What we know:
The chain is built from nine helices and seven strands, in the order H-H-E-H-E-H-E-E-H-E-H-H-E-H-H-E. It has helices spanning 7-14, 26-36, 53-61, 73-85, 125-135, 155-161, 171-180, 193-213, 220-241; strands at residues 42-47, 64-70, 92-96, 110-116, 136-149, 184-190, 242-250.
Amino acid sequence: MDLGMDMWKYFGITHTDHTVMNPLSLEKIRECVRLLRLPEGGRVLDIACGKAEFLCFVAEAYNVKATGIDLSPYTIEAARRNVDSRGLADRIELLHMDGGQYQPNAPESLDLAACIGASWVFQNHRGTLQALMKMTRPGGLVLVGEPFWMRDPDPEYLKLTGCGSDLCGSHADNVAIGEEVGLALLYTLVASPDDWDRYEGLQWQAAERYAADHPDDPDVEALLRSTRRSRDAYLRWGRNCMGWGMYLFRKP
């Protein structure tokens, strides 16, 4: 989708009120963290870490060392504030860089490698799983977040959003791709309509409030045009056809 403004500024504004920058509730994120059962002194990586809320949950639940990577200058600053405010700066390293260029100190060394909702970093879902596998030790975990079609999308929805029908497959397809690359599925978590409504609605609210508070910002017109288009697409079609899930796999 052509936003008509700087992409990182756009997402920084529209996700102002989001704690996690994906459609899952905090309760479900915490459930996922409880299921990780990470070892003492484990190593964790989260590519496109957003505001580092997931990493904070992990570091608060386990004695691990973590690295979070994000390319957005707005989001990485929010992540630093979050980590600092919770006294976790000595255990969570944050890097402002392209996650696709990151390499751990040693291959196959991580206890958990995650990329939640940013498979564009590695071209697609399959590429993301393959890249994370190479970083993860045998017996380690791979965690990804990915959209899926709940039903065939309406052509008008695809036209309005600028997406192709090949954007993603089904929920089962997302699991099957993991198994095809050699991973074993452990668990999935799926966004509910309420989770989606919160995720989308917070974006509309943030954009409208920003526009009201910054009437002289030259990007306001593009911001409102894009968020309102996204809102209409979601309400008319997206809520009924677009799903989103987190997939936890184990590397043999």
